[in-house]
Structure formats: C-alpha cells, structure tokens
Amino acid sequence: MISAGRVDDLAVMLVLLALAALFAVLVRTRPQIGLVAYIASIGLVPIWIGVQVGMFVGAATAVGIGVLVALLPGSRIRWTVWDGVLGFALAVVVVSWVGGYASLGDAYATTTGWLVPYLVGRVLVARLGSRAVAVCITLVFLVVAVLVVVEVVTGDNLFVRLAMGNPLYTQWSGIRMRGGLPRAEGAFGHAIPLGASLALVVPFVWSSRLPAWLRTITFVLIGVAAVVTYSRIGMLSTALALVLCVVGLGAWATRAFRAWAAVALVVGAALTTPTAMAVFAEAGDEASGSAEYRADLWSLLPSVGVLGRSTAAYSDASGTGGWGSFRSIDNAVLMTALSYGGFVAGLLVLLGVAALVGFVRGPRTPGLTAVVAILPSLTSVAFITQFSTFFWFVAGVAVAQTAAAGGADPPVEGDVEPARGVADHPRAVGVAP
C-alpha cells in the first residue's frame, strides 16, 4: 500500500514535470524566454531556492536543463578544442566517481554547476546571437545593482526573506559584516560571489546594443554595488574588467563612449576608494586576517592527489566537513584540486592560460574579456553560489563567440548601434540568422 506521503511526493513530481514540459515548449517557440529566465535565475534567485528530487535541483539548474532540452537539438554548434578539453575534464570526474575516487555529489556538482551552464552559454549565443545575450545580462544585472543599492540604503536584504527549510538557506542566508557595516549580498548569499559576478557583467554592458546613457548608468550602479560588497576581489576585478574593455574591446564601442568610460573609471575610483579604504581600515585585523588565510590555504597543496578527493578532506558527526584545519576554501583553483584531483585542476589552469593567450592574440570578445578579467581572482574566490553557474555560463559564451568570430572585431557603426556581436558576424558559423 502506498502511503499518503508518497502520493503527495508523486503529485508534486508530476506537477513539476508538467511545468518543465510547458517551459521547454515555450522556450522552443520563443528562445528569448529561455535567455531571460536563465539570466534572471542566476542574478535574482537565491541558491537555496529549488526542489529536492533525490539531489537538490536549484532554480538555475532547472531552467538551464529546460533551455538545453528545448534548444540544444538542431542548434548547429561549432565544437572546438576548448569544448573538448572541458569535456575531457568532466569525463575524468565521472570516471573518478565510477572508480571510487570521487563521490556522487562531486560528479553531480560538476555536471550541474559546470557542464549545464557552459552548454547553455554555447546554445543561447548560437540561437540568439551575442547582442541579445549582452542586452539581457545588462538589463538583469542593472536590476541586481539597483536592488543592491536599495539593500544598502534600507539595511534590508529582500532575498533573505525567501526562507526555505534546507541546509543551503542556513548556510548562505546570513548577512556578513566588515568594519562594522553589513556587506551587500543581493541574491548571491555572500558578498564575494556577488562582487565577482558583477565583474563578469562589465564587458557585456560595454558591448550591449543599449543607448550610451543607459550603459553609463549601469556602469555606475555596478561600480557602486561592487564597492558596497566591501570585497577587494569584487572591486579590483570590476575595475580590471573595465580597463580591459577600454584597451581590448575598442571595436565594440565608439571612441567617444570609450573616453567617457575611461573618465568614469578614474572618477569612480577617486570617489569610492576613500570609502572602501575607510571600511577596510575599520575592519583592521579582520581584513588582514582574511588575506593571511588565503595565503595559508596553499599549505593544503601537498595533500592533493592526481585523481579524486584530497587526503585532507574530512567530515564530522554533524555532516559538515572541511580540509585539514580549514572549514572553507576561498580559492577556485585549489578547491578544484582538493575536490577532483590535480589532473582536473591542471586542465582548468590550461584553459585559463589559453584564454589569456587568446585575449592577447585576438580576436577579443566580450565573453573572453570577462573570463580574463576574473582569472586573477579565482585564487581568492571559490565556485560558490551563483558565481559558479555564471562563470561557466560566461565561459560557454566566450567559446561560442570565439568560435564564431572568424577574424578581427567588426567595425563600429555608431554609439547606439555598436559593432555586431561575433555571433552576428557574417562569417560566423553555426549561428541562426
């Protein structure tokens, strides 16, 4: 006899499947719905919002799978060596799980946290083009930045009110402090992934087809949002992203807009640096201790094996764990090595070096610029909350744009009508008109 609880679970599952099928049909008909839903699920939905179906399925993962089901067939993606290297790295993780060197959770995390967003980025650029992706990212994160400013002014994070009875809410819903002031977190559960994600947005704002005044306002709000995270990673990465746009994405904006962006960078730095420095000075030992902690993390490197989890990993009676004497690892490169082995981490470092070389040699695209801007920070921020999803999505966009570029960046025709995105380039391959 089936219990009432099992019947309720089955009913909920059927409803979720029906909604998923409806979403896939809508996205198949209008891919723009999938683009907006996916970016919004990253920037405006906390990591703890989701359903437990054996494994926890977060909002971004659910939307991403729906987008892939609807749009991946027939997308005519032009596969590259970059895809092959990442695919090989993920295959190693799966083989490690099969061989007992990694857990099912590790394999699930790489599949949903790396592969799904990466493929979504590849597919959406192929179906909609670079312009549409850039505009959507710009507008969604304009809302994110506005909500961050509201959070700072009111002292109230609206997303924390979206309580759910799961461990992720317990882990990420608290507001952290620095220098006696609350750090802005938005929907990202922590100031650091919010700041790093804002940095990823900058090249897309730069290259979007939106009017110059709206892009300028967005830059200002993103800069303010990055500062009030009181995260050195977020502030420096956002500034670096804008610098790389000025020097590397010239064909994506007019000379006048580039000049205004440079002025905004200098003026913004002059206005915000004193506030940031005052907060860090007030934080005192906290801020310096944070830097020392990140340096001490490298002491775990000798415990890294070729495949699978580090020998320093442990789990206590409460179900939580850590690595050696550390409860958390704010370092994406090291965390990857500790979780999946030095071989997988080495492949990702190889991809990072290739991205840097690609940026230097050209053609330079918004996605590639965003990845290069955040590379230095990957030793100070882990793949946590939505930053992981957004990073791998942007990586997919970068590969799609690079594969479609076919040569030098296109010329700029005007400020409101900037250069065509590489996915809209006449020599682009595998892109829907």
From TrEMBL:
Protein's name according to its UniProt entry: O-antigen ligase domain-containing protein
Organism the protein comes from: Cellulomonas wangsupingiae
Positions of region (Disordered): 409-433
Keyword list, A-Z: Membrane, Transmembrane, Transmembrane helix
Transmembrane parts of this sequence: 45-72, 79-101, 107-125, 132-154, 187-206, 213-230, 236-253, 260-281, 337-360, 367-394
Highest rank taxon of the organism: Bacteria
